[in-house]
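Q: Convert this sequence to structure tokens.
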Amino acid sequence: MGAAIQLAKQNTGVALAALPFVAEALKAGALVDAGPGNSLEGKNHGFTLRQIESVRPIVKRVAYWLIEKSDKH
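A:
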């Protein structure tokens, strides 16, 4: 989990995380929130851009959708 957040801070990945894990980074501007109503409770997941190419097509589409959404914030 920590690795995904670090990669997201470096603009080389996207992290989905529970607010307690990223609240400080969001407040500092190191991370960008996906927007109101997009918070997830419970388990956390992350990926790097390099990992996207070796996944199933549906996972790849979701990953690129997340990246596209994050670019708009």
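The chain has a mean pLDDT of 77.
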